[in-house]
């Protein structure tokens, strides 16, 4: 019988939640790497037993862990992320030049076809790739060096490369997003890069529609329509239908268009999910009500999904990498909160229930659909 | 024989219990101890000092013989009590954070 494996990264370790296709009874494994921040755990689409985890600590730095048995056992692999050449400077919070310094890996994106190839998005923003299962990492420095890097500036959480999308129809095409630089596209497998931020307007920067400087929080893509991307920006929800050449806003009737995660239904490319947050200065759900909003029209028209979610006195946040969907017939949707709850819906968001309630603050949620 | 005490998280990472014992040829310095430690436990590379610059990480300290040696030159000789194995070389995770 098919099932799902939910990979949860938290402030104090990783957890693996498994269930059969009904998604009602769950087994909880963990914590793995207790006490360490686990920014992200993700499995290879080409080999579901191959997992990669980003493990970090303010004391002891970065580790990358690899599992070849679906998360039962883990082995540390290479943790040396060295920028290519002399990395130069980007802008610091006060606008002065600041040297590029590696802090941590925010996001790991395994190749769609090769379990040994995996991309890493890091802070300070850069993209790395390993082609040997994490035994060695090389920077794809064309991104950092394409021309605007010296003007990039960190968002409040650090200058992180947090989103990596691989186009299933074109192995040469990669999308990334950086807070607070914007979205970028490569059409030659990561060698050269182009900012793709036309149509974004950000009130917090001097030139509201500048080429770079936008605080993009998250991008999402449906694999059957890889030219269409959805974006949750610092403020505004947007979409593009030409691979980022032009964006337009689809916030529509959302109660707030500030938020962090965004994701797309596994079988409906125009069904999109966001979690509105009150504002940039108040990272809590509007009115103390935790609501996922779903659009079945690719944006603009949104409906609140509340069944099973707390509708009073709820003041948790949902971070950018903390939402995912499975690909079972009835699409499952999952998200984790800074309050340690992981919620699941086995019916595309109509009804929700917590899988676990009392984990450390959740940093990331990924789902594997198992045969 | 040099005795090294690791903080709990690094013992877990290196999969060791208790003290680590290292044999070092030549002068016993912090650099020599860390070189030997990382050679035996490659997973500790980058956890105590930067892999490229070899600079000690900000929240890691080196203690021995009731002294903080963190700011001593990395190539300075460690105390005789450490060199003889009478006292351990302590690698400490600073008291910070939550």
Layout: helices, strands, pairs:
The complex is a heterodimer of chains A (371) and B (98).
Chain A: E1 3-10, E2 13-20, E3 27-32, E4 37-44, E5 47-57, E6 61-67, E7 75-77, E8 89-91, E9 97-99, E10 104-110, E11 118-123, E12 126-130, E13 138-139, E14 160-166, E15 174-179, E16 182-186, E17 194-195, E18 216-221, E19 229-233, E20 237-240, E21 248-249, E22 258-264, E23 272-277, E24 292-295, E25 303-305, E26 323-325, E27 333-336, E28 342-345, E29 353-356, E30 362-370
Chain B: E1 2-5, H1 8-14, E2 20-22, H2 30-40, E3 60-64, E4 67-68, H3 80-83, E5 89-93
Parallel strand pairs in B: 1-5
Antiparallel strand pairs in B: 1-2, 3-4, 3-5
Summarize the structure in words.
The complex is a heterodimer of chains A (371) and B (98). Chain A is an all-beta fold. Chain A has one domain: YVTN repeat-like/Quinoprotein amine dehydrogenase (Methylamine Dehydrogenase, Chain H), CATH 2.130.10. Chain A is 0% helix and 43% strand. Chain A is built from no helices and 30 strands. Chain A has a 4-stranded antiparallel beta sheet, with no helix packed on it. Chain A is globular, with a radius of gyration of 19 Å. The N and C termini of chain A lie close together (7 Å). The mean pLDDT of chain A is 97. Chain B is built from 3 helices and 5 strands. In chain B, a hairpin with a 2-residue loop joins strand 3 and strand 4. Chain B has 98 residues and is α+β, with helices and mostly antiparallel strands. Chain B has one domain: Ubiquitin-like (UB roll). A 5-stranded mixed beta sheet of chain B has the order 2-1-5-3-4, with helices on one face. In chain B, 22% of the residues lie in helices and 19% in strands. Chain B starts with a strand and ends in a 5-residue tail after the last strand. At the A-B interface, strand 6 of A face helix 1 of B.
